[in-house]
Structures are given as structure tokens and as C-alpha cells.
Amino acid sequence: MDLPGSTASYHGWVTSWLVPLLASALLAARWLVRRIKVAGPYPAQSRVRFERRTSLALVVAALVAAANYADYGRARYGTYVNEWDTFHYYLNTRYLPELGYRGLYAATLVADAETGLRYRGTEVRDLDTYDLVPVERVLARAPAVRARFSPKRWATFVADVKWFKHQLTVERWSIILVDRGYNGTPPWTAAVGLATNALSFRSDAERAALVALDPLLLLAMLACVRWAYGRDAAALVAVLVGTHYLLSWGHLKGSILRTDFAVCTVAAACCMRRKRYALAGALLGWAAVARAFPLVFAAGPAVLFASRLVTDRRVDRDLARFFAALAAVMCAAVLLSMARYGGAHMLREWYAKIALHARETSDWNVGFRALVDVNFVDGVPHAFPAARMLHEEPEVQALRGALLGGVRLAVVVPALYFARYLRDHEALTFGFVYLFFLASPDYYYLLVLCAPMLFYLERPDGPQRSLGAAYMLLTGAFGYLLFAGWHRFAGAVPMLRGHHQEFATTYYLTWAVCLTALHMLALAAARGYAISKLPAHMRR
After folding, report:
1. CA 481 – CA 1 distance, rounded (Å)
2. What are the residue ranges in the chain where pLDDT is below 70?
3. 136 and 232: one domain?
4. Does 202 map to a domain?
5. Are the C-beta atoms of 338 and 347 separated by less than 8 Å?
6. Helices within 342-372 (DSSP H only)
7. Radius of gyration for the alpha carbons in the chain, expressed in angstroms and rounded
8. 106 within 8 A of 141, measured Cβ to Cβ
């Protein structure tokens, strides 16, 4: 999908290169100065001045990155509000009792027809099967669709749909119903539904209040990093969020509470570092409630808890509080959603929708599976929908399963073992390794890259940690090169042809992110090896 205006200078492409390069250079210079401090004479006052200047430069880089994230006030589609994303997240959180996880597109088409059909497509996505079905077949079920609503709720739904359809061009409105629907968990939907039922998107002030939640959460995340890791770490996280290609597009901007899973994961690591274990558990519990996959970040702390229980024959009370709070938040959220929706049927429907969604291949997936389910045509990678296309080839399907399972075991088992040698909060951020190899979320959920950045910023004066942080920043700049290409080498190097926001771009970036996960694993292994050489009384 091409993005209007994306190649314009105001979109921040220049600063998306320069700011990460500047931040990486500052990390390198700081490491060199600290090495000089150890290896030879260097005036103490000069070192202090240099540290202050680099800190100030990082703050300036963070401010530029924040402006870059906001596209310098020049919104991609002429408005900050992302009507495409909010169409899904506002309507389905507000009307989940009537729509469930399969009824949004059919109900939207019927409501559109009642107010003058603006949809020009000939087909609509059937969210039961992900097949495309004729518009006429959906409109024939209009009485059954309306019957799910009370008259008052249907009138409100029609008014909401009418507002959304006139915010989008006819062309964009005519493809919105072939997307893949809404996938928020029932507990998260129940909580966010309190806000979307109370505030109308048709009101300018109330709409502004809803879409302001995510920027405020990101600011709170940076404040939390500043509290736990320091000012320089907060500045580097801001640079990552403001310039990285995977975090640059609109799905998590101008929408409704689309960043809370990542903010809560990062805040959990910060709280654990500051010994607020119960609060850390509660935050990670909400992250898991919001998006499910952040639960893998609890794997490292679980290994530490089990290791201390077995090896030291003691219950780690701090981690016990962490897991108790995590479980309490998740259980309470699930129970409240069951009370809200009258039982567990909505949880079952969500699980069926997610299972269907996971079987489909997307151009936007980032994770180990995307590196396996690929087909090259003229040197360019294309997504290969293995789950569908190999259904009638059990031998090949078994080979694919063996490859996926074998590599995952070869990485995840050592990762679980080496997590024993990490500090509690490091073990939490180390969970990105498990996430990369076990899940394949769409690229915009890689906002959670802020967690592995904290893993590196734990010891920013170490060469490997500084290198890892700088590499993460530079992979973001690499994404823009993949998007636009490098015309001088486009004919000779397929990678540099310019692939826009399609599979090839996310495929190559997935390899770049894979190197980060493997590097984190190598650092944990090196730390484990170093600790194993210490006398028994010094190992902790």
C-alpha cells in the first residue's frame, strides 16, 4: 500500500536518518571517553563537561525525534485522527455486545446502505472465514443484522458509521471492509468500551480526548524510563520511538489506546528495577490483557523464581508479589469482561478469531515465522500463506512444522536457561527474545522494541550494550532505505529496489530485528559464562 506524502521531506525521512546517526555517534563517543578514563589520564573536569554536553545533545535529539514522530504537524492524511483505525477500534469497543468479533463489516454495510450507500466495492470480508463475499449477499441479511441491536443502539450505530464514512475518501471507504476486522481482547474491550460509550467520536472535543490518550501514555512511559534508568536512557527511547521505521506509520497514532500494551511492558521493567514488584506485575498483567503476547515477558522472571526455589530453596518474595499482582489483574479483567458480556462466549469468539487471524499470512508480520513462510520471485521475497497452501501437502507441512519447532527449541531453551543469570528487570526485558521466535505480530506492535532497548541501556558504558542500542536505532533508518530504495543500485541489488510498505520491507527488517534478539541471547550467555567462573559464594 503506497502512502500519500510519505516521501515528502516534511514526513521526517531526513531526520529519521540523521537523529539515529547522531545518537549512535554520541553513544560511541561516550564509550570512548569512558574507556580513556580507565586506560589513561584524562582531566576530570573535561570528562564532566563532555558528559553534560552529550546528555544535552541526546535531549535535543529526543525533542527532534518527538517532532518527527508528530510529522512536524503535517498529518499524513490531513488530520491527526486515523479514521481507518478508529473505525475499527471505536465501533467494536462501543458495540461489541451486538457485533461480536464477526459482525462489524456486515453491520457497517447495512448502516451505510440506510444513509446512501457510499461503499463502491463489490465484495466484503467475511470475518468468519476471511473469504470475500458479494455485497448483495451481505445486504440480504440486513433484518438479522438489525435484530442484534435495540432500536436506540441501532440509530446511534448508523449515525457513527455515517460520520466515519464521510471522513474517508470514497476510495478508502470502499476498501475498508476488506480489512481483517477487530482483534482486541474482551477484557480490554470491556475497559475501553467504558470510554467509547461515554464519549462520542462525532463530538470534536470528545474525539480529541480519546485520541489524546496514546500521546499522554507515551509521555508517561518516557517519564517512567527517566525515573528508573535516567535522563539519557529516556532520551534514547524517545529517539527510537520517534525515528524507527517500524514505529513511524499511523496505526498507533491518532487512534484509541493502541500503545498501552507497550507502555505497560516498559513501565513494568522500570518498576521492577526500582523494586516496585507488585506494581510491575500489575502493569505487565494489563499489557497481557491488552494484547496477550506481552505475557511472554514474564518468562524470564518465572525462570528466576523457579531457579531460586530449586537452587536456593527459598521463595523469592519480590517475584512472588510480582506474579500475584500479574495473576490478580488478569483474572479480575477476565471476570469483569465475563460479567459485562454475560459469560465466556465472547472469550471463545475472540479466541476463534485470533486463531483464524494467526493462520493467515500478512505482509506486515514481524517474527521468526515470517522468515520461514517466504517465497522469492526474481530475488524479491513474497509472503507465502503456508497454513492455507500446504493444507493438502502434509509432508511439506510437517517439514515446515519441524523447522519452526526445531529452531524455536534451539533458541528458546538456551534463552530460558541463560535468563537465570540476569537481574530481575533484565530478565523481563529479555523476554523480547521469546516474543520474536514464538510470535509474529504486525509491525506496528513492535513499539515493544522499547523493552529490548532498556536491556541495552542497563549498562550503556559497555561496548556490547552500546553497540546493541546503536544498532537498534540504525535499523530504523535502514527501514526507510528499504521503503524508498537506492536507485543507483536498484537494478543490481533486489533489497534496494524500494518496496514501499509491503512484505519485502518488513521481511528484511525482520532479519535486522532477529539479529537484535540473537545478540541479546549472546549477551545473556556471556554473562552466564562469566558468572559460572566465579566462586560459589559470589554468584548472584
Report:
1. 17
2. 1-12, 37-44, 76-77, 249-251, 391-392, 460-461, 536-540
3. no
4. no
5. yes
6. 345-359, 368-372
7. 24
8. yes
